[in-house]
Amino acid sequence: MKIIRLIVAALVLTAAPLAAHDMWIEPTSFLGDIGKIIGLRLRVGQDFLGDPLPRDTALIDQFISIDSTGRKPVYGRDGADPAGLIHVAEPGLLIIGYQSHPKPIVLPANTFNQYLREEGLDAITELRARRNQTNSDAREIFSRCAKSLVYYGTPTAAQGDQAVGFTLELVAEKNPYTLRAGQDLPLRLTYQGRPLPATLVVAMNRANPTAKMTARTDKTGHVTFRLQQEGIWLTKVVHMVPAPAGTNADWASFWASLTFELKSSGTGAAAK
Amino acid sequence: MRCAVWCAAAVVLLSSARLQAHEIGTTRVAVVLQQRSSYEIEIVTDAAALVEKLEALTGQPPQSEPLPRGAAISQAQLHAYDEVFRRRVVVAFDETAVQSAIDYKVSGVTAATSPPVATIRMRGSVPEGARRLAWTYSWTFATYSLTVRKDGEETTEWLEGGQTSPPILLELPNRPLSRTAIALRYLALGFTHIVPKGLDHMLFVLGIFLLSRRFRQVLAQVSAFTIAHSITLALSIYGVVSVSPNIVEPLIAVSIAYIAVENIFMCELRPWRLALVFGFGLLHGMGFAGALKELGLPRSEFVTALVTFNFGVEAGQLAVICAAFLLVGWYCGNRPWYRRLVVVPASAMIACTAVYWTLERLRL
């Protein structure tokens, strides 16, 4: 026990601070019910420790929900938390999507380099080195591309996630609500609608977020995680490219996330 | 083991907040400095998010699900984490952290989807002689607003979680001024109330000057004016006399016009002129009193301030007369054309200006 305390103290004293924060959607409930109103909280933070983001109309590019009847905007009051409210009207899988407009930021060189390392953006690190920019501050624009899957009724494999058209997007290739703990969830990563290979994707469970699973996408943009634990899951990925001309930035980053709940078999939710 | 690792990770994560500018969250912080002797800092934040971070930092296993919106997060629960909360909040005066008294409150939940809100108040005394306050709050990952209220002014800026605020400057409490300093200050205020701020009073004094070629005549009128305005200035300041500025200010303008018109039509000083100037002096004194009330009088040196302000007014008037004498009176006061080319045109201009002021002050 004393050794553990020492390890913890050493970690606390020596750990380099993380430089980037994730953004994800945390519904007030992942399980819908006909007539139920679900609050959609936007959260920024790290490892499921997050702060709520109130609705900022100026920042929203798209805030939508997709159910069996089609695609609808998510409404909410500007400045309110939860940022959006949805009314569960149809059984099945409900896809929630939030994409923000780009937001500018200037980061000191050290912070930016550290953030590139943490997010596995090795290609950008190399590009900066080739451009002799490693020691230069970075002007960046970042966009959020968050999705969440809420479910009502008896899940079927036919009711799956789908691409909603975000710039960077994680798509679950199996309905997570049909899975049990210990089963695989295949994901597809796309950038501007095309598969994005060799990109680091991270998956974590809310009950144990430090036990992260990481994998890089294959040539077809696919990655698969074995979800060993029930509960709420967050999968996330960061992609960065040189900023387009006219944006007054050096780099453009895109932060995609996908949240869902893996139900225990006892609830009956995971039956195929 | 898992708890320990989680605890360590939480510390690392929370310490990183300052490095990345993010979207604006729901946390709001207000710093109120009262009389520069005490401070109160109010933090309004999402109670559930705060409790989750507090739990993480104390090594408790994370909730498998978010705290439900209707979850009872009690003040006692936040109080229990008091020591942990303090670790990541710094109130520092001149780079020295101070200990604050903290109250925790949690608002009731009004709807299933509305989150409980924690209001945390930190209070304490400003150390004697402190010049700067710095604030650091590391319990949020998002950008938050810091509002500072002091001296009746309010400023707001955006900070990242974990970022130390720019120094909030605290001026030292004003030391009481000495009698000499008060006398000099009010002497200067009285003088500047005439030169350059009191154009109406300057024109009145010039009107007195223009009709009187002899020094004795000018002195007599200025003395009558001074005695009169001293009387009403004192009576008004002590509240014995109170006439609305809506009446006094137009009458002051009328008095200037009268003096100027009389200069045009009278060649010599008449006996009643002295009485008239005395009467107008009473009016102007009430005007001076209004200005002095706006400036304020120190309670401790009330009489000193009143008397020296009056002397300042007098010095201003004498400065106007001296300047006029040096410019025109000394060289051409005895010339045959002095009245035709100086007194009448100058008086006419003064009269026109005063009539305009009269109409303006009557809002006609």
Architecture blueprint of SSEs:
The complex is a heterodimer of chains A (272) and B (364).
Chain A lengths: L1 H13 L7 E6 L9 E10 L2 E5 L6 E8 L2 E4 L10 E4 L4 E9 L2 E5 L1 H10 L3 H9 L7 E15 L15 E5 L10 E9 L2 E2 L4 E6 L2 E9 L5 E6 L3 E12 L8 E12 L10
Parallel strand pairs in A: 9-17
Antiparallel strand pairs in A: 1-2, 2-3, 2-6, 4-5, 4-7, 7-9, 8-9, 10-11, 11-12, 11-15, 13-14, 13-16, 16-17
Chain B lengths: L1 H14 L8 E11 L3 E9 H11 L17 H6 L1 H6 L1 E5 L2 E2 L3 E6 L10 E9 L6 E6 L5 E8 L2 E8 L7 E2 L9 H16 L4 H13 L3 H23 L7 H21 L5 H25 L6 H31 L5 H24 L3
Parallel strand pairs in B: 1-8
Antiparallel strand pairs in B: 1-2, 2-6, 3-4, 3-7, 5-6, 7-10, 8-9
Helix pairs in contact in B: 5-10, 6-8, 6-10, 6-11, 7-9, 7-10, 8-9, 8-11
What does this structure look like?
- The complex is a heterodimer of chains A (272) and B (364).
- By secondary structure, chain A is mainly beta.
- Chain A contains three helices and 17 strands.
- Chain A has helices at 2-14, 109-118, 122-130, and strands at residues 22-27, 37-46, 49-53, 60-67, 70-73, 84-87, 92-100, 103-107, 138-152, 168-172, 183-191, 194-195, 200-205, 208-216, 222-227, 231-242, 251-262.
- In chain A, the strands form three sheets. In chain A, strands 4, 5, 7, 8, 9, 13, 14, 16 and 17 form a nine-stranded mixed β-sheet that branches.
- The longest helix of chain A has 13 residues, at 2-14.
- Chain A is globular, with a radius of gyration of 19 Å.
- The model of chain A is unreliable at 1-18 and 266-272 (pLDDT under 50).
- With 364 residues, chain B is an alpha+beta fold.
- Chain B has helices at residues 2-15, 47-57, 75-80, 82-87, 179-194, 199-211, 215-237, 245-265, 271-295, 302-332, 338-361; strands at residues 24-34, 38-46, 89-93, 96-97, 101-106, 117-125, 132-137, 143-150, 153-160, 168-169.
- Chain B has a six-stranded mixed β-sheet. Chain B has a four-stranded antiparallel β-sheet with strand order 4-3-7-10.
- In chain B, helix 5 (179-194) packs across helix 10 (302-332), helix 6 runs parallel beside helix 8 (245-265) and helix 8 (245-265) packs antiparallel against helix 9 (271-295).
- The longest helix of chain B has 31 residues, at 302-332.
- In chain B, 40% of the residues are buried.
- Residues 1-20 of chain B have low confidence and may be disordered.
